[in-house]
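Re-run with default settings, no changes from the original entry. Doing this only to confirm the output is reproducible before filing.
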Amino acid sequence: MESNQQNTRPLFGYRKFWAHRFGPAPFLPMSRAEMDSLGWDSCDIILVTGDAYIDHPSFGMALIGRLLEAQGFRVGILCQPDWNAAVDFKKLGKPNLFFGVTAGNMDSMVNRYTADRKIRSDDAYTPNGEPNKRPDRAVTVYAQRCREAFPGCNVIIGSIEASLRRIAHFDYWSDKVRRSVLPDSKADMLFFGNAERAIVEMAHRVAKGEKISEIRDLRGTAFMVPSGWLPSDEWDAMDSTSVDTPGPLITHTDPYAMEGDSKKEQNSRSTVAEGTPTNAQPIRIVSRSERLAARKDRSAHTVIRLPCYEQVKDDPVLYAHASRTFHLESNPGNARALVQAHGERDVWLNPPPTPLTTEELDAVYELPYARRPHPSYGEAKIPAWEMIRFSVNIMRGCFGGCTFCSITEHEGRIIQSRSEDSVIREIEEMRDKTPGFTGVVSDLGGPTANMFHLTCKDEKIESACRRLSCVYPDICENMNTDHSKLISLYRKARSLKGVKKVLIGSGLRYDLAVRSPEYIKELVTHHVGGYLKIAPEHTEERPLSKMMKPGIGSYDRFKQLFDRFSREAGKEQYLIPYFIAAHPGTEDEDMLNLALWLKKNNFRLDQVQTFIPTPMAMATTMYHSERNPLRKVTRDSEQVGTVRNGRQRKLHKAFLRYHDPVNWPLLREALKEMGRADLIGNGKKQLIPAWQPAGTGNLSAATTGNVRRTAPVTRTNIQRQLRTRNK
């Protein structure tokens, strides 16, 4: 096995598989009849997904399918198959190479359940929003059915659901630590993060006859191995306590030591001191560059052993330690392999994938997508498609590091941006080919609207960095905050023939935006449709410090500029702030202060978010362990208060909707318990009135949460998953 720091092969640098002669399909086939019309006797690869098939690059299976097709493979797709039996999994026959299994664009548990663990009444990724078209923990169920349909067939798993469950993880819905999805799904391999490089190389190697069980050198992959397995004699294992200690400190290597200064050589020198004859060796000074190269090589052949599943499931402190270690090894430039024992076998994780270049990302997004749902859905409305059909994804990744968000665990902290020309071409294609286009582009965005081409000023610094965030507690001095490329893109996009308006629908990182007033002016003057989404998440330092979010002062500075430029443009425009209730580290007093801030600023929120502990997020670690993994974890390290019981979670949500009479009985009761009955009354500085409108104020409604909640379909949800907003 070669080093995981090997040079990356260009994504489109492979010789195409022989089936490329069939050419691209109008749609990836979903039936035998479609395969016959294409002249196919079989599929090389069959993708299984919990979403409806929309042939558009914003949908993961379409993107992966078209990418594999461009490599010359015949790719079929099974969408939302009936998981109660294996029949649907046989529809396209046995794939020649492998099944690729995903839950879809969203985690199946987040997709189906609210923060209160109640079943949602609709599914945005299903025709007509119909619910219950995918199973809980869909990746595991689908993979098992693939095995049942064709025993011995290769099965790989991926998507955000698999990525977030690649090691032992806390599962909010069962309220326990579950083992990696690999042993449960019985998959041959797991692909995490942006998987294009790994899946393309694996497909070509399997096509040449290589067994998946022998492919162990692909970045961004995880697999099961025998206990204690190492790729070769060159590899060493390091216990995670040597990286981040709950245990004893280790003695670090002398950075000024001579190369080859081993115990054997030390003994040899002692022999010389005693006058014993020996062969003299010349002394060579090792340069700094040589030492760094040697250190990098050692790192590339080192695996860090995390506490085993059996340990972390019963010990919250070890769970927090494992979580911190995992996140410290997330930079593709310096991350080492990880291994975690599960019983008598190990789960092995190679380092994260190398990000795509701008040229590669352009090529991926410019593959021959039909840019619409599969014709078999007829006139059915698919909410996720309706929301993004007139939007364009311009970048990937996020270096914000917000602890409640799973972008970094999935897409990574390195920003991958498309070129301006590529984005413009997609807008033109959307204008010319997408039915119903009226001239309004609904979004130019991604996980964060304004991180387009924002990168570290020095690639060497970026590759060596181990910070969990580039913007917390302050924006790193090495971070480029120049928004000029984004401004240029906005101007060219709105000048295109047939384009009347370009709106920005993705969430904005306002602490970056204030570094570029010119960008804010451009945005406010031309690209805000009356309202702009922004996410301060809270006003109080206690929860903000656990979220890794900036203080409310950054929001205030942005609002000043937003209001100023709106007035100059002669427009009446408003900010729509998002806040999180019941986040780890939040106390009742914090939510009360937030509610008072909302009332003072005349905000009456329709959309509120209760914290959902999603697998592997840092905030989830806080929720489960009640420890702070943002710092070194020990038995005596900082404890984090968590909001667990239903009444308190409802109370925190009620503070965000202080204006809703349904919540007033619960709030009155809580304010009295907190000794703040002075806030009950009809004065301007009081939070809620003492009177109750007729027909409102059922205390059971406020405490049981019987109001229907759904997850709105936004590009933010599609790209970020775990920024679910409960309406």
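Residues 552-568 form the longest helix (17 residues). The longest strand covers residues 574-581.
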